[in-house]
Amino acid sequence: MFQLAFKAGFRYFYNQSNPVMKPILFSLLALLLFTGARAQQNDAAAAETLSFKETEFNFGKIAQSKPVYHLFTVYNKSGKPVQIANVQASCGCTTPEWSRDAIAPGGKTDIKVGYNAAAEGPFEKTITVSYGDASQVLRIKGEVWKTPSTPAPGNAPVQFLNSRLQP
């Protein structure tokens, strides 16, 4: 029963001989195209506002429990001041620091990203920078190697030589 009603309604609204539906469908189609074109213009303008020197950094191999830092440089390519609204890390082991002041036109600022290498193994973390109506995702990655739990063993031959050289 529902299918018959749906088919009948579908035929009524999409019947080409229906003079009322043609202008409505044409108007809706024009509105969708205009909205899509406008959204693409806004995205392009937002993308041209801030420029990042790099969006990914590889720390390589780092020692466990030794915090490491990297500076991501941000340039304001627009003709007006832009303020970074928020910088959000994907987890608590990653800490971003940034200036809350607006970036002057043609100016630059740095976002300092720290990583506390507590867990052993490879890692990849994201940092989302929000500004205006846009955002940019930054990535840090690397590999944490486990530090030895005991100090290096003594070297007997070196100790022997040291004792012989001392008067």
Automatic annotation (TrEMBL):
Residues 1-39 form the signal peptide. It comes from the Bacteria. InterPro entries: DUF1573, Ig-like_fold. It holds the Pfam family DUF1573. Residues 148-167 are annotated as: Disordered. Keywords: Signal. This is DUF1573 domain-containing protein. The lineage of its organism: Bacteria, Pseudomonadati, Bacteroidota, Chitinophagia, Chitinophagales.
